[in-house]
Recover the amino acids of this structure.
């Protein structure tokens, strides 16, 4: 098992390296960070030249990538932009945890992203827990009552939910639970922000502000997962060992939850593990609509201002999350199914 | 001799139905899928709405602003209400629908071409070509598409001038959006095509083609590719829904298609600010997007059952 984990971890490193290379090339070719730097427009050509030299953008792309990856404190760089590399560099490179500084706020990227990550994780973890819990409930329920009226109705509803764009879910849920409920005199939910500034950041406040974004993030995944769980449960329920367990006269609960669910869990774990980091994509839209101060909104705000270091940092983080979750999924899978470890 | 009474083999031949072609078989299976048929009907209605509606309302009317008419609720004169600067929402959903459907289809054509090219080259040649192309594919698959879309939409936005086709002026951002959606979504298809090529290239007919001196390009595109059409059609159909959604997402976030050209996505932009006072701003374009995506998903599902019965996912 240890060897297997080590092998998977080592395989992840070249993949991340390639991702960083592809992203870096993409970034360097799609935008001119100087053109819109910090919202100012630099018009004089000699200023542009100087700034380019100061930021190291005059160097060949391979050198820029090297500096970004391992830093430039081992060589001399052109700090004052006069064309002569005379001062030692200060960047440490992402391998040593230095993602550079934001072009807009001049703060280190790690600090900017670091203060947003907990907020995004809060949403994601809550959404995932809600999704899995209800998807399991509904998936198992409809698998046990295949083609019943309830199952057919749920199939149709889930297909609709699955096709719903996140912004539509959020606008509709905001309209119903915040505006209509308020109009009808019912207790209603807040729509924007993380807490009411007049009350302060209390757990109760954050919790009530979380409800709608979490609901929005969960709906499409809930629909997909409950269908998937229904499918795998149906497959497992028709296996010989389930029939044997039934024939032995085991209680139905035990057959369903021990014999069937445990075996159905494997494909479910895979799908969930591989999908999890992609929730971050949904977070961009959700956080923007609900004004939630998370990483997705940070990304959006800084893309709008062409802040390459921040954008690049977040993209690398997301990619790393995807790769790490792939590895975790593989490990969990190997742990659940010993057959995999031996090849 | 056999003219008086038909012989047994003759009789059997008369009774047997002629063998069905693949497309006939596919159609038979597709017809059984009721939801897919509903999907097709809805799609036809949506096209009639977007392109037929243009006969009733002119584009000038769709872009006509009158601030004295702003935020009017749905009425007989404006069945879907008016937007923040007094434009008729029904007329805008008609012209927006044309652009949204256009973007969905053209982006998928680009996506399909790229996916086939990458997948076919990787699967057919193998070796370092395969390694290189698949590593790039994996790298791009590892980043949620919306991030890539936003980055590219931001950097390429506003670089294409307005275009004039037959007297109608379109924002150049339509082209930008089509290209970036196509360029960021080909990866799944490339993997499907590659997998098909890997197994198909081992067949005897490929060996025979090689033996007769057929060029690689001909083997790839004339001999192997036609055998992979079923999964490609299924995947591309479902991709149209994704492309329409992608456009809606980036336009909703304000980085997509720019005014005055309407799309269902950019009509939703800023509608969140009028959630309380003007729910019709988001309801109608939102419903149209939902309906389109839903019916394309139904259609794709039916096509999968009909053309590609082995693969069943989710």
């Amino acid at each position: 098992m240890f060897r297997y984990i080590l092998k998977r971890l080592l395989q992840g490193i070249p993949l991340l390296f390639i991702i960083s290379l592809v992203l870096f090339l993409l970034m360097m070719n799609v935008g001119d960070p100087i053109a819109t730097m910090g919202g100012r427009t630099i018009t004089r050509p000699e200023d542009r030249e100087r700034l380019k030299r100061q930021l190291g953008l005059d160097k060949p792309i391979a050198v820029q990538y090297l500096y970004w990856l391992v830093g430039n404190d081992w060589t001399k760089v052109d700090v004052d932009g006069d064309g002569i590399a005379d001062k030692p560099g200060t960047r440490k490179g992402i391998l040593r945890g230095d993602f550079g500084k934001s072009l807009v706020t001049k703060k280190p990227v790690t600090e900017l992203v670091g203060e947003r990550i907990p907020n995004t994780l809060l949403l994601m973890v809550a959404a995932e827990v809600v999704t899995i819990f209800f998807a399991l409930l509904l998936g198992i329920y409809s698998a046990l009552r295949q083609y019943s009226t309830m199952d057919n109705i749920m199939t149709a509803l889930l297909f609709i939910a699955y096709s719903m764009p996140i912004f539509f879910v959020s606008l509709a849920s905001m309209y119903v639970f915040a505006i209509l409920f308020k109009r009808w005199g019912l207790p209603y939910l807040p729509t924007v922000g993380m807490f009411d500034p007049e009350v302060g950041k209390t757990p109760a406040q954050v919790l009530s502000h979380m409800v709608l974004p979490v609901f929005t993030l969960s709906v499409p995944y809930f629909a997909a997962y409950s269908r998937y769980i229904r499918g795998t449960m149906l497959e497992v329920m028709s296996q010989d060992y389930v029939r044997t367990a039934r024939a032995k006269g085991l209680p139905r609960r035990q057959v369903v939850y021990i014999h069937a669910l445990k075996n159905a869990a494997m494909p479910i774990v895979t799908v969930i593990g591989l999908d999890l980091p992609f929730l971050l994509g949904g977070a961009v839209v959700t956080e923007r609509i609900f004004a939630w101060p998370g990483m997705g909104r940070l990304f959006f705000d800084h893309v709008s201002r062409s802040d390459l270091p921040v954008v690049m940092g977040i993209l690398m983080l997301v990619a790393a999350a995807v790769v790490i979750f792939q590895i975790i999924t593989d490990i969990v899978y190997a742990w659940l199914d010993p057959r995999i470890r031996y090849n | 001799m056999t003219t008086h009474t038909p012989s047994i083999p003759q009789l059997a031949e008369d009774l047997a139905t002629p063998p069905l072609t693949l497309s006939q078989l596919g159609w038979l299976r597709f017809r059984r899928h009721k939801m897919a048929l509903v999907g097709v009907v809805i799609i036809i209605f949506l096209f009639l709405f977007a392109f037929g509606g243009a006969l009733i309302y002119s584009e000038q009317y769709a872009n006509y602003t009158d601030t004295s008419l702003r935020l009017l609720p749905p009425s007989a004169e404006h069945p879907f209400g008016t937007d923040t600067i007094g434009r008729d929402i029904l007329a805008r959903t008609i012209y927006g629908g044309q652009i949204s459907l256009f973007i969905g289809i053209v982006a998928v054509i680009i996506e399909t071409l790229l996916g086939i090219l990458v997948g076919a080259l990787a699967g057919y040649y193998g070796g370092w070509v395969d390694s290189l192309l698949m590593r790039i594919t994996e790298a791009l698959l590892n980043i949620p598409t919306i991030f890539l879309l936003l980055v590219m939409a931001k950097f390429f936005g506003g670089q294409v001038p307005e275009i004039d086709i037959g007297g109608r002026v379109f924002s150049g951002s339509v082209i930008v959006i089509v290209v970036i959606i196509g360029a960021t979504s080909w990866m799944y298809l490339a993997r499907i095509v590659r997998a098909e090529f890997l197994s198909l290239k081992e067949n005897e007919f490929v060996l025979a083609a090689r033996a007769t001196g057929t060029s690689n390009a001909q083997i790839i595109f004339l001999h192997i590719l036609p055998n992979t059409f079923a999964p490609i059609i299924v995947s591309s159909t479902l991709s149209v829904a994704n492309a329409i959604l992608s456009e809606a997402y980036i336009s909703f976030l304000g980085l997509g298609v720019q005014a005055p050209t309407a799309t269902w996505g950019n009509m939703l932009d800023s509608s969140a600010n009028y959630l309380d006072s003007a729910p019709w701003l988001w309801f109608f374009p939102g419903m149209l997007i939902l309906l389109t995506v839903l019916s394309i998903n139904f259609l794709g599902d039916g096509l999968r059952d009909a053309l590609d019965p082995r693969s069943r996912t989710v």
